[in-house]
Amino acid sequence: MSERIEILISGFGGQGVVKAGRITGEASVLQGLFTTMLVSHGTETRGGYVRTQVVLSDEEIDSPALESPAIFCALSGAAYQRFFRSVDQGLIVYDPAYVQPDLGSGIRHLALPARDLAVSQLGGELFANMIVYGKLIALLDGKISKENARQALAVGDDAKNRRES
């Protein structure tokens, strides 16, 4: 790969933003990549601001801070407004149920109706983050194999179960 790929996922608490970032990071580790992840959120338990940033590379990562996200997944209007200007050469994936994008900004956008798909296909919006995760893996275009992406889902659940027991 010999490139640094920066991913930003942001929305509001309860959308699974951190889980999507954690599983993406786990998948990249399983792929043998160097990976960092940072999380930031408001003080609210649910409904407040949440952001996770994942950096992956085949070389050591000197800083986990984002410089120019390759992919920004905007899961709320507030997240979009806060971060869309940080994407200059990348792609913004947004959920049109929550985000009204500035399509005249010159930034590439891709609508992903994650909430609506989760409700209609999976029975609840709780699963929208996994739709975002699947799209994110697809956008990484083979940098993370489908097998490692699937395995990361199981590892994430195993780690959670270990913490809760």
- What proportion strand? 15-25%
The CATH architecture would be 3-Layer(aba) Sandwich
Largest β sheet strand count, sense and barrel closure:
6 strands, mixed
* Proportion of residues in helical segments: 25-40%
Question: Can you tell me the CATH topology?
Answer: Pyruvate-ferredoxin Oxidoreductase, domain 3
Write down the CATH class.
Answer: Alpha Beta
Please state the average pLDDT score. 89
Alpha-beta classification: alpha/beta
- Continuous helix count: 5
Order of helices and strands: EHEEEHEEHHH
Any idea what the shape is? globular
Compute the separation of the termini in Å: 38 Å
Protein described:
The protein is of the alpha/beta class. The chain has one domain (5-164): Pyruvate-ferredoxin Oxidoreductase, domain 3. The chain has 5 helices and 6 strands. Helix 1 (17-30) runs parallel beside helix 4 (128-139) and helix 1 packs across helix 5. It is globular.
Provide keyphrases for this structure.
165 residues; alpha/beta; Pyruvate-ferredoxin Oxidoreductase, domain 3; six-stranded mixed β-sheet; 5 helices; 6 strands; 37% helix; globular; disordered C terminus
Can I get a quick summary?
With 165 residues, the protein is of the alpha/beta class. The chain has one domain (5-164): Pyruvate-ferredoxin oxidoreductase, PFOR, domain III (Pyruvate-ferredoxin Oxidoreductase, domain 3). The protein has helices spanning 17-30, 77-83, 114-122, 128-139, 146-164, and strands at residues 5-12, 34-41, 49-57, 71-74, 91-94, 108-111.
